[in-house]
Description:
The chain is mainly beta. The protein is 11% helix and 37% strand.
Amino acid sequence: MCDVTYVQKACAYITRGTGELLVFEGPGHDGLQIPKGTLESGESPREALFREVLEESGLGSLNGTSHLTTDVWTRREGRRYVRHFFHSTVHEPRDRWTHTVTDGGGEHGSEFEFRWIRPRTAGEFALDLDEYVGLLPTATGTETVASVSD
Length: 150
């Protein structure tokens, strides 16, 4: 039996008024992704969410942030990711932009190409990050998202 390591992640589904979902592609990534990252020591999932979104996309102002769900995802033997998925809205007029990552870690200096897509036509994302797109109000046709306390 092998030891299992659990890594806490915060994942951001960010939508804008048109109902579109923010995604990016960047070097070293296999397919579409959403802003996400590892929680730092002593950091809550919500705190990590805001930090990661700013570092990866440059967006510093999110509205109506709510926790959607938490799961445990296995990428490889012995390593599990506890993923906390959140939904936020943002007022962002740009349709596309490039942001240079400012995290100071392994992705520091990488350029991520951001754009908006329709959630219903998203297809598959890298790392199974599309698993909960159906919970978004824009994907289901509802106006609100049930908030689960984190």
